[in-house]
Design goal:
With about 220 residues, this protein is of the alpha+beta class. It is about 45% helix and about 15% strand.
């Protein structure tokens, strides 16, 4: 089975169900990261949650909304694409609070990042998305769905209200406006926007950049 067939296959499967196993080599601590840029606008901030080696030849930047159903569908697809190029891709996540419950969920994720449990909390938010972000129906409080993820809830509630977290939300909103992101998920690969939306175009752009880097 070639790589193109693989991606098409897993794309179809991802729209049906989602894997729960941890996959990424996680680097969620705040650190200095050289920003990728489009024009003069940073695509990567020092606080951005990242997965994969810092020196990977290909960096995927995803603007995502934890309440977005399409983001949930793409989550395993991005995992699979990174698995096709082991150790050669880095994923950078950027927040886009486009839905009503998203700002609180993002603040929760920032608290999880501080506690180094970002990935299991993100997985749980996607798994339970229909409960806390049901789009037009009464919702479960997002804090209720993240129990037993390793998150210290008492500490997280305080961390989510910290000025640094508010600053992150404000910076993300400013970058979204500057870059012109209007929907989620929105992808950039080595600073190049994904102009044709879909799993296969994303894989093709990653593959093209990998070849351009001689990998």
């Amino acid at each position: 089975m070639n790589r193109r067939t693989l991606i098409l296959g897993i794309a179809a499967g991802a729209l049906v169900g989602f894997g729960g196993a941890a996959f990424f080599a996680t680097n969620n601590k705040t650190e200095k990261v050289a920003p990728a840029v489009t024009g003069s606008t940073p695509l990567v901030r020092p606080y951005s949650p990242t997965f994969g080696p810092k020196d990977a030849p290909v960096t995927i930047v995803e603007f995502f909304d934890p309440a977005c159903e399409a983001c949930r569908a793409f989550h395993p697809i991005v995992k699979e694409i990174m698995g096709v190029f082991p150790g050669k891709t880095r994923l950078v996540l950027r927040y886009a609070a486009f839905h009503a419950p998203s700002a609180e969920a993002i603040a929760l994720l920032e608290a999880a990042r501080m506690q180094n449990v970002f990935e299991p909390v993100l997985e749980r938010l996607y798994e339970t998305q229909a409960l806390w972000a049901p789009h037009g129906k009464s919702a479960t409080n997002v804090w209720e769905v993240v129990q037993n993820t390793g998150l210290d809830l008492e500490a997280a509630r305080k961390q989510a209200k910290m000025p640094d977290v508010v600053a992150v939300l404000n910076q993300e909103a400013a970058d979204i406006r500057a870059i012109g992101v209007s929907k989620t998920p929105t992808f950039f690969v080595n600073g190049k926007p994904l102009t044709k939306f879909g799993p296969q175009p994303l894989f093709d752009l990653v593959s093209s950049e990998m070849k351009a880097q001689g990998k």
